[in-house]
Specification:
mainly alpha, 6 helices, elongated, LTXXQ
């Protein structure tokens, strides 16, 4: 009888472990997609500018798309180089990154027509306001430290 109880207990333990293993989430080695970031996950700001989306919104020409993509790649390279520079202090890096973003923005303004640039600024402002509103909705939803269960 004791052997039977041990066998049943071992079988139950085995089945519960295998059932749990099947329901645990699998880690993927793939990078998160833009959809992942659109759902509000962290690092959304680093998802990158999708120039093809902007091309349809702003009615860009093929030449403008090519120029914008080249500008974006050059900016990424410069930003990575700046981040990897260990000789600069954090404040110096921040200042240089800000300057680099301003330069890239000025270059983008040269690529776009005045109407496209105005529309681009309006769309960016709307996106920023939507993000701020979404962030505002999240604020205050978590209980304070003393109120946690």
């Amino acid at each position: 009888m004791k052997k039977m109880k041990m066998i049943v207990a071992a079988a139950f333990l085995f089945l519960s472990v295998t059932a749990f293993a099947q329901t645990s989430p699998q880690k993927s080695s793939e990078k998160p997609t833009k959809e992942h970031y659109k759902k509000g996950h962290k690092r959304a700001a680093h998802a990158g500018v999708n120039i093809d989306e902007w091309a349809s919104k702003l009615d860009l020409t093929a030449s403008q798309v090519t120029q914008w993509k080249a500008l974006q790649e050059a900016g990424k390279t410069q930003m990575h180089t700046l981040k990897a520079n260990t000789e600069l202090s954090r404040e110096e890096k921040k200042a240089q990154m800000k300057n680099l973003r301003q330069q890239n923005r000025a270059e983008l303004q040269k690529i776009l027509t005045t109407e496209q640039w105005a529309q681009y600024q309006e769309l960016r402002k709307a996106e920023r306001e939507a993000r701020q509103a979404q962030a505002g909705d999240r604020k205050g939803k978590r209980p304070a430290k003393g109120e946690r269960k």
